[in-house]
Design goal:
With about 325 residues, the chain is mainly alpha-helical. The protein is built from 13 helices and no strands.
Length: about 325
């Protein structure tokens, strides 16, 4: 029984829940995250998305089990390895999805619930079809991040900045194409080539195409985020700061201070993809690569400090 529970938790992929922190983005940069009602709504949205995304992983692993058994790493997944029976996986998957939709309808709202339904349908269509269509597979993966940010705005009743949405698109494309690049590296390393049944699209992805898309996404992310910082910076400085700051610093674009961290973070991720041959699992990379983890944490602390400790709020 204990081993069965362990395999269920493994298949639910708690590490992947890190992606769901993007649900807090809209409320954070609007300066409303620390409002009790907004924070509670965002937490409810986070819980619902964790449940439904885990349900999607169960369905994905059930569908992919035959191919996963031929993959050098994925063959160890609970369902592919036979440690978790498929009928148990189906029960858990349907229970998580049903609970997430019920919880959302009861505690958050109909628009957010609609996003959950769209998300799970998109994940199922990805597992059944889009994962085998070159470029579209990466675009569908990237869309999941965009849906999370949109869902966070709907849950907290917060308007989403156009530049925040564009930045999210850039980051999601970078992660999606970086994931494909790393998958090719891993499969080639273990099997000697990428002409494998593990993922049909890999053999159709030229390295040059992936490299170009990754470069484009990285540039796009840095540019859109830099423009976003102009909009997200506090418009006013507290009276306490006004007394100690020189006049030229009384109304600067404070969020611009975070741009170097984003540039370094993007560059570090590219280093991980190309030099270390990792990146197939972005959340694992984030937790295992200390420089990248430190950069993300520092960025979060600095963004929170600028947004909430320099009164006037972000618009």
């Amino acid at each position: 029984m204990i081993n069965m529970l362990y395999q269920i938790i493994r298949t639910a992929r708690p590490r992947q829940w890190l992606k769901n922190f993007s649900l807090f983005a809209a409320a954070l940069f609007s300066g409303r995250l620390l409002m009790e009602s907004v924070l509670l709504s965002s937490l409810d949205a986070f819980i619902a998305f964790c449940a439904i995304s885990s349900g999607a992983y169960f369905i994905n692993d059930i569908i992919d089990a035959p191919k996963d058994r031929q993959h050098p790493i994925k063959k160890n997944r609970p369902i592919a390895s036979g440690k978790l029976p498929e009928w148990v996986a189906w029960i858990v998957a349907l229970a998580l999805i049903a609970w997430a939709i019920f919880f959302s309808t009861s505690n958050i709202g109909s628009y957010f619930t609609l996003i959950l339904v769209v998300y799970i349908l998109m994940q199922i269509s990805y597992s059944l079809y889009f994962r085998n269509v070159i470029i579209m597979d990466s675009l569908v993966v990237a869309s999941g991040f965009v849906l999370r940010v949109l869902a966070g705005g709907l849950a907290s009743n917060t308007s989403i900045s156009a530049w925040l949405a564009l930045t999210t698109i850039g980051i999601s494309l970078l992660l999606a194409f970086g994931k494909r690049r790393s998958e090719k590296t891993i499969v080639a390393k273990f099997s000697g080539d990428t002409d494998s049944a593990t993922r049909k699209t890999l053999r159709h992805y030229p390295d040059n195409l992936l490299d170009s898309m990754i470069s484009m996404a990285a540039t796009y992310t840095i540019i859109t985020y830099s423009l976003f910082t102009f909009q997200a910076s506090p418009q006013y400085v507290s009276n306490e700061l006004l007394t100690i700051l020189p006049s030229i610093l009384r109304s600067p674009k404070w969020m611009m201070l975070t741009i170097p961290l984003v540039i370094y973070g993007v560059a570090r991720y590219l280093y991980i993809i190309y030099e270390k041959g990792e990146g197939e699992s972005p959340e694992r990379v984030l937790l295992s690569d200390k420089p990248l983890l430190f950069t993300v944490v520092l960025w979060g602390v600095l963004a929170m400090a600028i947004t909430y400790l320099i009164p006037g709020g972000a618009e």
